[in-house]
Amino acid sequence: MPARRAFPGSGGRAPLQTPAVVPIMKRMSNPVHIVCPYCHGTNRVLRERLGEGARCGHCKQALFAGHPVELDAASFGKHTGASGIPVVVDFWAPWCGPCRAMAPQFERAAAELEPQVRLAKLNTENEQAIAARYNIRSIPTMVMFSQGREIARQSGAMDASALARWVRGALSAAAAGN
Hints:
Elements: H1 21-27, E1 31-35, E2 42-46, E3 69-71, H2 73-82, E4 87-92, H3 97-113, E5 118-123, H4 128-133, E6 141-146, E7 149-155, H5 160-177
Helix pairs in contact: 3-5
């Protein structure tokens, strides 16, 4: 039998037998993938530690800043498909009066709902192909995604409390349907 290689600080034991590694392995039993709002890198974070100021392992920025994430064609699929938490996307346009009026409310809702839900914005003028793929016919339209699937949709401007109620209700309905 070949000898196991010991690492400095391991007390001569193999890496998986060190006392410091075993608790880490047990703690990582419930990780969730979180996509960074800045560099769009995917990070594993323990679900129970989402609200503890997690930082991106790539760019070192905060994973949750209480602001909606601006999406484009390159980042849309990554955030809606790779995120381990639900993502609510506001499909909007700069010329839309109700969209502009709702923007501060969406910002407040992001601060209230993170880190359980990520809020993001997609400019339909710049990303018409994505808007067409999701059959966006009126704006603003909020679409909630979970693991790449659309689970809820709501059209029309809402204030922060109505948006938060809609998100929580949609999550409850989705959980009941599973």
